[in-house]
Design goal:
- The complex is a heterodimer of chains A (369) and B (506).
- Chain A has 369 residues and is mainly α.
- Chain A has a single domain (27-343), classed as Orthogonal Bundle (ABC transporter involved in vitamin B12 uptake, BtuC), CATH 1.10.3470.
- Chain A is built from 16 helices and two strands.
- Chain A has helices at residues 2-11, 15-45, 52-77, 85-102, 107-130, 136-154, 167-173, 176-180, 188-206, 208-218, 220-225, 230-256, 267-277, 289-308, 313-345, 357-368; strands spanning 160-161, 258-259.
- Chain A has a two-stranded antiparallel sheet.
- Chain B has helices at residues 39-46, 69-75, 92-96, 111-124, 140-153, 170-185, 198-203, 226-234, 289-296, 319-324, 334-338, 345-350, 366-379, 396-410, 426-441, 453-459, 482-489, and strands at 2-10, 13-22, 28-32, 54-59, 62-64, 77-80, 103-104, 108-109, 158-162, 189-193, 206-211, 214-220, 253-262, 266-274, 278-283, 304-309, 312-314, 327-330, 414-418, 445-449, 462-467, 470-476.
- A six-stranded mixed β-sheet of chain B has the order 6-9-10-3-11-12, with helices on both faces. Chain B has a six-stranded mixed β-sheet with strand order 18-19-20-15-21-22, sandwiched between helices.
- Classes of the chains: A mainly alpha (369), B alpha/beta (506).
- Chains A and B meet through helix 1, helix 2, helix 10 and helix 11 of A and helix 2, strand 8, helix 5 and helix 6 of B.
């Protein structure tokens, strides 16, 4: 009898979760809509935009940033940050080339060594953050600089070419699909990105690692008190991020047929931008791989389209910067509206922290970080 | 289960002194007491959050050590904290099984299974929740149910709830009580910490009263008299010194607020403040006193309401506006909101009124600031080696004086003191009291928020009591007693029939 009473009671309140979910879905549709919008605008503006070659160019240009952003998504969901993905990518590329060209290791073993280099750097990040309690910003800043320096030292500040191993370049630039279906020359690298994205999506959605990444970003202390080994899982998340950086390094080395030790600075910020445009919250607990992939594509479509319209490269960067801010601002607005609604309706604010200066402060810090 | 002679101290405070207590299977054991009486600390010892300095816990006839919350859970003791410890971005089922997920191949979480198990658990409790709902989308009441479901998934036999009804509406409380009764029928022992005395009769079997870290008494609810419980809660020796009120305030109204509202934290608050008056704001933590003051001061947004200064309607959108209209606010958390700790005494004193000391191109008039800072330091007897001393190196009492000094320099007519004596020693307290009286005599209008009843009684001309975002009572200095204040402070905003408020003062 009482069970009936309470279920009736609940029925009156079921509306709210749905409205919240709908608004989360709106966010994703908006991001995707922005990508489509850019496509339409550039297609109208230039006849060269919607050509097969140009679309391949966009896909290819997204591969490296996209793969780096996948790793960064995991870290950002834990409410952390990884500034080292760019230079760790470079170090991985250098090590891969070093293994293959200078040590003469078999190509696949050498490239695997490159990926493992990334994993090792990520592990260093993780240990510094979880065990030594160094804030992620500082820890990964240190690893970023360390990786940059090591790359230059190992490569003697010169590019290392895959001179005797022509197969390396083909790994990304050849087209297996093109050889099966003539005319559809989609470079292999594009499939590496999508493959990596699918794997990342499965890890995030289905495995214990993804679950704890969300839990840590949502409420780290509560997660710890639930008996989860937070230090271990944080280290795992940063290591995974390193694996993606390593993969990015191998892809870029293959595409350039060489390891360029001076490359890499600035890639971390592009990766973070892609994650943020994709709707992942810098304050943790929220984010999707699909969003990140869309975010990465928004960035490369924008760059590509502006270049076709002969906008100077310098201005392309300015526009991208504006987009990042607009994306995050829109997200903040959405959240604030939601919170306002919650406050007026009563209840629920206990978990979303008290309103007032703490919140503003937090938002400021996370947006700055 | 029982405790024997538990003690726990923190640096400088003995929070729990030699407390012994029994919890029987299937009983609802209410734990009441003022803020800081040691209720939560005692329960955190039981839940493994704190380790006791002395004493032991006997569980099912055998002595146990509870070093961690996990150990407590293993034993079957689960505490639901006041700040719910859920992961808002995860679903109900994910929260219930966090840390214990069934996995395939050690890696892939079996979401189907946790959803199914959670569904069974929720059905057992007659909770109409979908295990796949994200916790952030639930009301606080429903989130609490999730915590209870989680507690039961550990087969808990002792469930500790710290003020579970603090954020609930009346209908939700009934649902919660229903659930609690259901659990107690199953033999779960429940410890129920609460500030709402009207709930005692409705839900508890026995009542334990704590005060100043000691257990005062445990009584069966059936025989308990709520007034006696209140007396036990406040029963400390009434303040040594007689109230030293300054002369009566003038009838001139300096500040008037009408019908302030802000979400469900401020519900239709109206009051007047006179020149030369000290108006005490009493209430329990979370009653909305600070929120009202922050809203008046422009630190938080208001939904509706009007503020009048000297009969003139003012619109305050920011603290800057408030200072302009002559309102100063001294935060309860002076280290966070009242002081820039790394800066020196002089800089802190002039911080709220820099505009007065600016010369050409924003150049600071150091002579003038140094002069006024020196005068304030002398007048308030701030003990500091010099004006250039960093504020963080001063004692709590002297830091508080610097905050007061800051608002004296700003020369606002209305001063709001939020817990002005929190965390400072007795000597410094009486100096702050003297200072408040002096300011009132000079014609400043003062609002003092305080959770210490003797302090409120000693200092205020008039006392306004808040509960759950509403003003539930107003008393003059003459008629106020600790018992009366406590009654108003524990009153539900919308009292149920069983609980009749004492008649409001005319």
């Amino acid at each position: 009898m009482s069970g009936v009473g309470s279920s009736v009671h609940a029925a009156g309140r079921v509306v709210r979760p749905e409205s919240r979910l709908r608004s989360a879905a709106t966010q994703k549709i908006l991001t995707f809509g922005a990508l489509i919008g850019l496509f339409v605008v550039f297609t109208v503006a230039s006849p060269y935009f919607l050509t097969f070659d140009n679309l391949m160019g966009i896909l290819l240009a997204t591969t490296v940033n996209g793969v780096l952003a996948l790793g960064a998504t995991f870290v950002i969901i834990t409410a952390g940050i990884d500034l080292s993905v760019g230079t760790v990518m470079t170090l991985s590329a250098v090590m891969a080339a070093e293994f293959v060209t200078n040590w003469g290791l078999p190509v696949y073993l050498g490239l695997l060594g490159g990926v493992l280099t990334g994993a090792l750097a990520g592990f260093a990040n993780g240990i510094t953050i979880s065990k030594m309690k160094v804030p992620p910003f500082v820890a990964t800043l240190g690893v970023m600089m360390g990786a940059k320096g090591l790359s230059l030292v190992i490569a003697h500040s010169k590019p290392i070419y895959f001179a005797q191993t022509s197969i390396v370049r083909g790994l990304t630039m050849d087209s297996v699909v093109g050889s099966v279906i003539p005319g559809l020359d989609i470079p292999n690298a594009v499939f590496y990105l999508f493959g990596a994205a699918i794997i990342a999506s499965l890890i995030l959605g289905k495995t214990i690692l993804g679950r704890y990444a969300f839990a840590i970003g949502s409420n780290e202390e509560a997660t710890r008190l639930s008996g989860v080994n937070v230090d271990f899982w944080k280290t795992a998340v940063y290591t995974l991020c390193g694996v993606f950086s390593g993969l990015g390094g191998v892809i870029i080395a293959s595409r350039l047929n060489s390891a360029q030790p001076a490359l890499g600075s600035g890639y971390e910020l592009d990766a973070i931008a892609a994650v943020v445009i994709g709707g992942t919250s810098l304050s943790g607990g929220e984010g999707t791989i699909l969003g990140t992939v869309i975010g990465a594509f928004i960035m490369s479509v924008l760059t590509n389209g502006l270049r076709i319209l002969s906008v100077a490269q310098e201005w392309q960067i300015v526009v991208t910067g504006g987009i990042v801010i607009v994306a995050v601002y829109a997200d903040m607005l959405r959240r604030r509206q939601q919170q306002g609604r919650m406050l007026l309706e009563g209840g629920d604010q206990a978990l979303t922290q008290p309103p007032g200066p703490e919140r503003e402060q937090q938002a400021g810090v996370s947006a700055g970080g | 289960m029982s405790f024997r002679n538990i003690s726990k101290s923190f640096p400088g405070v003995l929070a729990v002194k030699n407390v012994s207590l029994d919890i029987l299977p299937g009983e609802v054991h209410a734990l009441v007491g003022e803020n800081g009486a040691g209720k939560s600390t005692l329960m955190k010892v039981l839940a493994g959050v704190y380790t006791p300095d002395a004493g032991h816990v006997i569980y099912k006839g055998r002595e146990v050590k509870i070093p961690t919350p996990q150990a407590a859970r293993q034993l079957g003791i689960f505490m639901i904290h006041q700040e719910l410890s859920l992961m808002p971005h995860l679903t109900v089922a994910q929260n219930v099984f966090i840390g214990r997920e069934p996995r395939h191949a050690g890696l892939v979480v079996d979401d189907a299974e946790i959803n199914e198990k959670t569904r069974e658990l929720l059905a057992l409790l007659h909770l109409p929740l979908d295990p796949r709902t994200k916790v952030a989308t639930l009301t606080v009441a429903k989130q609490q149910m999730v915590e209870i479901a989680r507690a039961l998934s550990f087969n808990s036999e002792v469930l500790i709830m710290d003020e579970p009804t603090a954020a609930l509406a009346e209908s939700e409380i009934e649902e919660l009580f229903h659930l609690i009764r259901q659990l107690s029928r199953k033999g779960v022992g429940i410890v129920y910490i609460t500030h709402r005395l009207d709930e005692l009769k409705r839900i508890s079997d026995r009542i334990t009263v704590m005060r100043d870290g000691r257990r005062i008494d445990t009584v069966p609810t059936r025989e308990a008299d709520i007034d006696a419980v209140i007396r036990m809660m406040v029963g400390r020796t009434i303040f040594q010194a007689a109230p030293e009120l300054p002369e009566q305030p003038s009838p001139e109204v300096v500040l008037e607020v009408r019908h302030l509202r802000r979400g469900n934290v401020i519900k239709d608050v109206s009051f007047q403040l006179h020149r030369g008056e000290i108006l005490g704001f009493a209430g329990l933590m979370g009653a909305g006193r600070t929120e009202v003051m922050r809203a008046i001061f422009g630190a938080d947004r208001l939904d509706s309401g009007e503020v009048f200064v000297h009969g003139r309607r003012v619109t305050i959108r920011s603290p800057q506006d408030a200072v302009h209209d002559g309102i100063g606010y001294l935060s309860e958390d002076r280290k966070r909101y009242g002081l820039t700790l790394g800066m020196d005494v002089e800089s802190n004193l002039v911080l709220a009124s820099l505009a007065k000391f600016l010369g050409w191109l924003g150049w600071m008039k150091r002579e003038a600031t140094r002069g006024i800072a020196r005068r304030i330091v002398d007048r308030l007897a701030i003990k500091t080696p010099g004006l250039q001393q960093q504020v963080k190196n001063l004692s709590g009492g002297n830091q508080q004086k610097v905050v007061v000094g800051k608002w004296l320099v700003a020369d606002t007519e209305i001063l709001v003191f939020d817990e002005p004596t929190r965390g400072i020693d007795v000597g410094a307290k009486s100096e702050i009291y003297r200072l408040l009286n002096e300011l009132a005599k000079q014609g400043k209008a003062i609002i003092m928020i305080s959770s210490e009843l003797p302090e409120i009684l000693r200092m205020s001309h008039r006392i306004v009591i808040m509960s759950e975002g509403r003003i539930t009572g107003e008393l003059t200095a003459g008629e106020a007693t600790q018992e009366k204040i406590m009654r108003y402070a524990t009153m539900r905003a919308e009292p149920p029939a069983a609980w009749r408020p004492i008649p409001a003062t005319p």
